[in-house]
Design a protein that fits this description.
homodimer; alpha+beta; S-adenosylmethionine decarboxylase; seven-stranded antiparallel sheet; globular
Chain lengths: ~130, ~130
């Protein structure tokens, strides 16, 4: 299962903190029943457009990963949770909403696996 | 843009080699016009089901990433190329086909970005 979230109107303090993104990637796998195979990698990025700076972070879990890319000046964040085993995507979304305080998200849920799979797309207003 | 590939019938030698997955993640970003922000991380994984062992690898590129999870006993591989800037997805697919020798792929192409986006799904027979 691969849960993809693009979050809008997120809390800028969270998006601009390397430490908070690291802490999230460090503790979140066990919260949703996954096992890290290495410590997270987190970097600050400053590109050619100054407003597109942000934090990129990643943690490898067993045959799976979680990644986060933030754009603090745009209050925007991309999050991927990809696991070869099922997890509770609604719980994951609610947890991430509480952490990032999105106003709105675009969500994709892909049932990637050993058999052919399908895709479900939804716009969700944060509640 | 986020290109997601699930490849079936791939070359087992490629899927089971930590070195070859590392080399691919090390050189592939520049091949498709991206810049690494850290060296790749690559690990061998052996889970509770012996046939589900494989190699997981990841490289962070500017506000983006490439990840690979292989299942050699199933000749199966999951590949994600996520970039905040556009890239030639057809070129990327052709390159990956040549490297992994898939018989067949399931492809998802998500136009994730700063505006709302859409999703395109396709089954492709390898040619």
């Amino acid at each position: 299962m691969h849960l993809i979230i693009d979050g809008y109107g997120a809390n800028r303090k969270m998006l601009e903190s390397e430490d908070m993104i690291y802490d999230l990637l460090d503790r979140y796998p066990s919260q949703i029943g996954m096992t890290k195979v290495a410590p997270p990698q987190v970097f600050k990025y400053v590109g050619s457009k100054p407003e597109d700076w942000g934090i990129s972070g990643f943690v490898l879990i067993a045959e799976s990963h979680i990644s986060i890319h933030t754009f603090p000046d745009r209050c925007y964040v991309n999050i991927d949770i990809f696991s070869c085993k099922d997890f509770d995507s609604e719980y994951a979304i609610q947890e991430l909403k509480a952490i990032f305080e999105f106003d709105e998200i675009q969500k994709y849920l892909l049932n990637r696996g050993l058999e052919y799979s399908n895709v479900e797309v939804a716009d969700l207003k944060a509640t």
